[in-house]
Each structure stands twice: as C-alpha cells, then as structure tokens.
Amino acid sequence: MKVALIQQSCTADIQDNKERLAANIADVAARGAELVVFQELHNTPYFCQVEDVNNFNLAEPIPGPSTDFFGTLARQHHIVLVTSLFERRASGLYHNTAVVMERDGSIAGIHRKMHIPDDPAYYEKFYFTPGDLGFRPIQTSVGCLGVQVCWDQWYPEGARLMALAGADILIYPTAIGYESTDTPEEKARQRQAWQLVQRGHAVANGLPLVAVNRVGHEPDPSGQTNGILFWGSSFIAGPQGEILAEASQDKSENLVIDIDVQHSEHVRRWWPFLRDRRIDAYQDITRRYRD
Predict the structure, then answer these.
(1) What's this model's pTM, rounded to 2 decimal places?
(2) In what order do the strands lie in the sheet with 215-218?
C-alpha cells in the first residue's frame, strides 16, 4: 500500500490552507498514493495557544463543509484520506475529530480525540470535550486504520486497544512544537521522545505507524509567549520501529512510501507479544494510581 503524509505550514487564510492541501493531494495521488494522512487541525492555525470564545466559530458539523470539500477530493483522486477537524457536535459541545474519507467520498468513520491536554500554549481543554467513541479502528478499502489524534500518541493503551481490535496500521495526525526558551538540548530530547514513544507503539503491537506533524512558526495571538515552532519531523515507521521515511524539521513536504502491510504478520510470528500478554494480571491498569 502506498501511503502519503502531507506536512504543511498553516496561515490564518483557511481557504489558502485548503487549496494548498488540495494541490498536495493531487501531487501525492499522481505518485500513486492510496492512503493520504494530514496533520492535526490542518484547516487553521493552531488556535489553542489562547482561550478565546470567538475561536468556536472555526468549528463545523460533521458531515459539513470540510467533509464535502475533502470527500470530493478523495473521490476525484480515488484515495482514502485521513483529515482532522474542529467538530461542532452541538451548541457548546465540540471535539477534536479525525475524519476518514473513503475513495468514493463518503465518511468511513471518525475518531474523537480521547486525551485532551491543557498546558501553556496548548489550552485544548477549553475547546474540546474528550472523545466518547473509545479506541475503535476504522475499516476502509485500504485496510483497518487505527486513527488517533496527537496527545493520544503518548499513551500505549490506545495503541494496544487499536491493535486488539484489528488495526492494520496506527495513524496520528499531530500538532506539536518547541517552546522558544528551551535549550537546544531540551528541544532535541523532546522531539526524539515524541518519535521514540510512537516507534515503541509500532514495536509493541507489530504494526506500521504514520505520524504527521505541523511545521513552521505560529505566533501567539495574545503576545504572552513567543508562539510555537512546530518541529515537523513527520515520519512513517515499520512494525519493528524502523524509520521508513521522515520529513524535515522546517519545511512543508509531501512523502510517499510503499508499506508492506503483510510484513506485520511475519513480525508478530517472530515476536508474539499478543500471545504472551498476561490478561489475568492487568486489572489495575484501569486504576488512576496504585497506592
């Protein structure tokens, strides 16, 4: 299966962002991509740097204008497309939602972000209600997609539950970057940790993994910080954690790579982690903390 990731900078011009995404889809589709993955909240700047009620105006229903727009592109290019939208579910109820579009332009399924951060410059709890759909992969014409969103990627439980439900590949649209006052050494540690934890999910579950991050600097509208420099580095890993492709840290970029999804079967025969799980001894994993 040919998989494409589209790593893109974002501006305040939503239409420009969408038009550049459309051009990038055309590029990777011409190179044979069957599955295309976007970054988190790709239509807009990362508005969660501030708490501003006016930003709720950016949300839209699903189905809605963006699913119509990207569904048409999926149908035109005959691809499966993983998008990431600010969902308006009801008045006062919003989610950070990945939407998978099928080749015919229909919605194959959605994942509402389960883990919602609340850190300086990442004030997501102000905007997003935690997901209520659990960790269920989405069946598509190119395979069973274990789609989660950004902060979900730090939790091994979600990846494992996707694997246990039959996911063929793990997918994470992402928006993560540097705080300007961190030292170069700390920045490097953070970026490497982000990759390492996800490569660990690939290894522990014997599955390929796609993580697509934003890139470029986005200012803080409040002026209280120096904004976020998103570190790019989008990548595709194989089922043994091997890096199959990696984008730059500072450029918009499209990558297309052929993934042998069947290789997971061989890896799981060599390393049968699912066989040896002690499901009789894991009850405490659902506790907040073991005193």
Answers:
(1) 0.97
(2) 177-179, 228-231, 215-218
Instruction: Tell me whether residue 150 is one of the annotated catalytic residues.
Output: yes
In the chain, domain spans? 2-286
Note the pLDDT of residue 174.
Answer: 98
**What CATH architecture does domain 2-286 belong to?**
4-Layer Sandwich (3.60)
d(CA 208, CA 243): 10
Tell me phi and psi for residue 184, to 5 degrees: -55, -35
- Distance between CA atoms of residues 245 and 242, nearest Å: 9
In whole angstroms, what is the distance from residue 289 CA to residue 31 CA?
A: 48
Catalytic residue among 34, 87, 150, 218: 150
pLDDT tens by residue, 120-171: 999 999 999 999 999 999 999 999 999 999 999 999 999 999 999 999 999 9
At residue 36, the pLDDT reads 98
Active-site residue among 48, 87, 102, 113?
113
Catalytic-residue membership of 113: yes
Does 60 participate in catalysis according to the annotation?
no
Token couple for 259: 């993934």
pLDDT at position 203: 98
pLDDT tens-digit series, residues 57-88: 999 999 999 999 999 999 999 999 999 999 99
**Residue of 34, 40, 124, 218 with catalytic role:** 40
Query: Rounded to 5 degrees, what are φ and ψ at 9?
Result: -75, 155
